[in-house]
Amino acid sequence: MPKATVEIVSFGYLHGEPPAAHLTIDLRHHFRDPHVSPELRYMTAADEPVRAAVLSTPGIAALLEATVAAVAGFASGPSAGTIVVADGCAGGRHRAPTFAMSLADRLKADGLTVTLTHRDIGEPVIQR
Asked: Where are the alpha helices (DSSP H) in 19-90?
């Protein structure tokens, strides 16, 4: 993979508009939400049970690899610069930051420089 700088931002759609990005991944509708489990609701991606629940969701690993491939495509362009990837879920506490952390780890392992920001992980749990 070409050398590139990647900025990853996780966010919650219920806390505001998605950040500007070259690639935006919406995790809301196709992947189960740990929020529905009372024991996980008030945890975040900083907690292992949340990460385990998200990463064991069917399709997440494939989406992660597809996103790595998309970043490689952006990075191979003649004027790549910084590539911004935003990934969002409903509240920004579970799925999005877990996916962002895994993506960052994968891209760093490929030799890319990565910055990671969790825009909404510290926001209050949305009651729904």
From this structure: 38-41, 48-55, 60-75
Q: Phi first, then psi: what are they for 125, rounded to 5°?
A: -65, 130
CB burial of 36-48 (b: ≥16 within 10 Å; e: otherwise) equals eeeebbebbbebe
Tokens describing residue 49: 């049970």
Domain limits, the chain: 5-118
pLDDT digits (tens, 9 = 90+) for 71-114: 999 998 887 689 999 999 999 999 999 999 999 999 999 999 99
Give the Å distances, CA to CA, from 22 to 74, 85, 118, 119: 8, 6, 17, 17
Query: 122: Cβ–Cβ under 8 A, 6 or more apart, which residues?
Result: none
Beta strand extents in the chain (DSSP E only): 5-12, 23-26, 82-89, 113-118
Q: Can you give the pTM of this predicted structure?
A: 0.94
The token pair at 39 is 């024991």
